[in-house]
Amino acid sequence: MGKSTDLSLAQVPAEDEPQASENASEAEEKYRLLLADVHDGVVLLDSDCGRIADCNHQFEVQTGRKLEELLRLSVCDLGDPSQSESGRRKFAEVLAKGESSSDEIELRRPDGSSLLVEFRSRLIMLSGKRYVRTISRDISAQRAVERQLRAQADELRRFQKVTVDRELRMQELEERLACVAVHIKAT
User: Fold this and answer.
1) What is the DSSP letter of 81?
2) CA distances in angstroms from 184 to 138, 170, 171, 176, 177, listed in the order given
3) How far apart are CA 113 and CA 157, in angstroms?
4) CATH at residue 88
5) pTM
6) Containing domain of residue 150, as a range?
7) Residue 123 and residue 47 in contact, taking contact as beta carbons nearer than 8 Å
8) Quick one: 155 and 110 in the same domain?
9) Domain check: are 148 and 125 in the same one?
10) What tens-digit pLDDT sequence spans the chain (187 residues)?
């Protein structure tokens, strides 16, 4: 089995249960606060079936769905159906290795739009249960800038070629003029 990060709380003796309950509530509040302002989507997946167990608000924004709807779905339900087999392989990789390399997926939203995200997953333990924690980052703006830069670079290459061609043509014309001038002087 792959490595996992254990986020579970230790077993607490009965006499310490009130304090443990208070600590658990505090830990849950910290967990929620940590995830609330994150600009990346964070989602917990049940490691047994791949169903979504929890997520932060940003993941809801990225998918265009509320948590209540997401809880009924598997992460494979969020992408292009033609990519579901690839998604299953990636999920199996996380279970086997404990984490996955960075990858991209196009999330399909209910309104028909899509969002390109980069994601990275890790196997974790939370209260004694295995989950896959996935962090997704919206890279659609980054890809748009990359496309724009490639287009500008192509335009610069075309301009450079035209400029170099023009310069070569000018040199050729100057050489011909020099030949004509020599020919005129000779006659």
Assistant:
1) G
2) 70, 21, 20, 12, 10
3) 34
4) 3.30.450.20
5) 0.66
6) 140-187
7) yes
8) no
9) no
10) 445 444 433 344 455 555 556 676 777 777 677 767 788 999 999 999 989 999 999 999 999 999 999 999 988 889 888 888 888 888 889 999 999 888 888 999 999 999 999 999 999 998 889 999 999 999 987 878 888 888 888 888 888 878 877 888 888 888 888 888 888 887 7
